[in-house]
Amino acid sequence: MSQITPPKYIRQILFTLQARGFSAYLVGGCVRDIIMDMAPQDWDICTSALPEDVMVLFPDSRPTGLKHGTVTVVMGSKTAEVTTFRTEGDYRDHRRPDSVTFVSDLITDLSRRDFTMNAIALSADGMVSDPFDGISDIKNRTIRCVGEPMLRFSEDALRMLRALRFSARLGFTIEYNTLTAIEAKAQLASELAPERVREELEKILLTARPETVSAAISFGLLQRYIPGSGWKTPNFADIAKLPKKALNRWAAFSIMLQKYGFIPSVFDFLSQLRLDGRTLHCCEDAAEILKEELPTNKLGWKKLLNCYGVDAVSCAVSTYEALSGISMEKELRAVLKSGECFSLKYLAVSGDDLLELGLRGPELGEMLNFLLEYVMEYPDNNRRELLLALAKPEDS
Fold first, then answer.
1. How many CB atoms lie within 10 A of CB 124?
2. Which residue has the higher pLDDT, 67 or 368?
3. Complete edge-to-edge strand list for the sheet that includes strand 24-27
4. Tens-place pLDDT, residues 324-378
């Protein structure tokens, strides 16, 4: 077992529950990460205590999911999710159980979980409960459903994307029966909320193995968003060359899909997945930029930055480099570091200055654009006095 130990506030929650006669265990991803000697990002606790018992023991708790037995326990500035042992009813929407029943048995609770590696419990004194041989699967780097895979994915279709995400993040192999069930039940993913699909996709894209999205596409898990197949399969492994930033990786992913005929529109694809407005427009602009040759001189870069903005141009350049292997980042950075003006924001005069000269309406806007183009070509002349002289009407 790993030498990683839970933080003090987590041990305090466990011991407090046990001192009042309740069973309490760490469960899920935090236990998996401890076994793998990885620092857990979140700490989840399961217990025989009912939600109302938990809230009495921890008065600052928040009832964040009472219907499903979950209470967020607050310890100073720290929080932990504490959930009552439960079993679940039918999943008519293939995502959430219609009902839950609280139980007193740990094994029953573990049996409802998605994968064996996430169905391991660890007590405060280090005792492990592993009824589905999850530790062995972790050692063998295998993702396996708890129980019957077809049933697990019929209950919650998001588990299929989670399996791929864990495979990408951990480098684990999905075992045959689980993989076969994903292929058989993939159509159920079309019923998932776009936000949930987007979240899992983004997590895959941000791993060191973004090419795992190929499996999601080929199995049909993204049929709702990518209805057809392209004329060539992109090498999504190239996305790993980009910075681990969501904006860059969404841009590269959507541009590759459009380039090879999987989607007709970057904007429409990302809109369906409910991406935020900044990401939508940045990725759309980056795709538009890459329809033409990238600039070969500073003036060209400044004009491109003026037209599309720093984010879109940066995303276009990083995508171009990942796909072509040709470095352009240095040229762009040189322009950005130079401090030379490429937008009205950095122009030495403003619209108010031109108003004082008597310019109005379209004439004012045209003059601002003229001055911007002038200083982009002659950056040393971005000086207030000089630009006001250029803008001054001849008859004044």
1. 18
2. 368
3. 62-65, 70-75, 78-84, 44-47, 24-27, 121-122, 128-129
4. 999 888 889 999 999 899 999 999 999 999 999 888 889 999 999 999 999 999 9
How do residues 240-262 score in pLDDT, each as one tens digit? 999 999 999 999 999 999 999 99
What is the band of 91 on the pLDDT scale with cuts at 50, 70, 90? low
DSSP labels for 4-27? ----HHHHHHHHHHHHTT--EEEE
Contact 250, 202 (CB under 8 A): yes
The pLDDT value recorded for residue 229 is 84
User: Tokens at residue 93, please?
Assistant: 């929407």
Report residue 115: phi and psi, to 5°: -125, 155
CB atoms within 10 A of CB 170: 18
Q: Angle at the Cα of 215 (from 213 to 216), degrees rounded to 5? A: 65
Residue in the block written with tokens 């720290």: 78
Do the strands 78-84 and 70-75 form a parallel or antiparallel pair, or are they unpaired? antiparallel
Instruction: Give the whole-angstrom CA distance, residue 248 versus residue 323.
Output: 13
What whole-number distance in Å separates Cα of residue 381 and Cα of residue 329? 26
**Residue found under tokens 């041990």:** 11
Amino acid at 77: S
3-state secondary structure of 314: helix
> Beta-carbon neighbour count of residue 131 at 10 Å?
15
Give the three-class secondary structure for 194.
helix
Our CA dihedral for 29, 32, 38, 41, rounded to 10 degrees, sits at 10
pLDDT value of residue 329: 87
Residue of 165, 170, 172, 169 whose CA lies nearest to 200: 165
Q: What sign has the CA pseudo-torsion 239, 318, 270, 278?
A: positive
- The torsion defined by the Cα of 113, 119, 123 and 125, in degrees rounded to 10, comes to -170
> Which alpha helices (H) appear in the chain, and where do they start and end?
8-19, 29-35, 51-57, 106-110, 134-139, 149-155, 158-170, 176-185, 194-205, 213-219, 246-259, 266-272, 277-289, 298-308, 310-324, 329-338, 351-356, 361-377, 384-391
Residue with tokens 């006669």: 21
> What single-letter amino acid sits at 80?
A
Task: Indicate the pTM of the whole model.
Answer: 0.89
